[in-house]
Amino acid sequence: MFGRTILVLLLLWTQDAVRSLRLVELRVPTHEPEGGMALLGCQYDLEGDTLYSVKWYKDGREFYRFVPKNDPPVYYFQTPGVNVEIGRSSNTVVALVNLTQESAGHYRCEVSGEAPSFATVYRQKYINIHLLPKGGPRVIGLKEQYNLDDLVVANCTLPPSRPKAHLKWLVNDKPAPSSYILGPWYRVSAERPDAAETFLQLSFFATTSDFVNGAIKLKCQATIAPLYQRETESTHYISLPFSMAAHPPEAKEIRDIASSVENTLATIIVPIMMLILM
Ligand SMILES: *[C@@H]1O[C@H](CO)[C@@H](O)[C@H](O)[C@H]1NC(C)=O
Ligand SMILES: *[C@@H]1O[C@H](CO)[C@@H](O)[C@H](O)[C@H]1NC(C)=O
Asked: Tell me, what's the pLDDT at 183?
């Protein structure tokens, strides 16, 4: 009996809490590229309350304030890495432009109701800022053609990025065996000491098992999850000693062409001979 009363009271209290100011959704990207922009969204439901303010904080420091009673309602504070585009910002959205590494951090939206409740709700999320490489992976050292047992050696390099990129070699669309791979190595960028170039070397001896029908497809893939993925692909050939070139495709083609030439000649010669005979 007593337990049931508590339960009823608890339900009434919870329903009351649900009916007050509520932060519905904080929509903040998890990753953005340097130089880009980010829209931070904060959806709230006043549930009958009157809005006093919407405030935005980065790492605990206020940078934007919307107070409907003020004129103008928007106020922002200069904060390193936080460049607010006022024209695109409102009570529910803040537009950040010219993102830099300093822009990374915890972003918090805090919504407050008017007197007498002064209810305040907030939520926060982290934004990572990535420096994406200027360009895709570059492959150096490959030759167009190899002889059997030649060393196939190449380096795949990616311009500076932050965080470091993940490079991967693919042989005929399958990940290269680990015995073919050396590295990765990283080289800190001269202009950007916080960023690094990435290198990954591929090396193996040319055998017929890697060269399917005399050709091999090599691909270097660069990934910086979740914003960036690019790849470079090339095809290379193997020249085999004559004894190993079983059923060379050229021979068949030549035979086909030769027989079709014979046929054509026959169709021309026969009518000519018939003409002479007549
Ligand atoms: C962003 O950068 C551009 C170009 O440097 C500049 O014109 C603009 O004022 C910047 N915007 C903000 C809000 O800082
Ligand atoms: C590949 O890059 C590494 C690291 O910079 C270097 O030591 C190696 O000599 C390079 N190899 C080729 C084939 O370019």
From this structure: 93
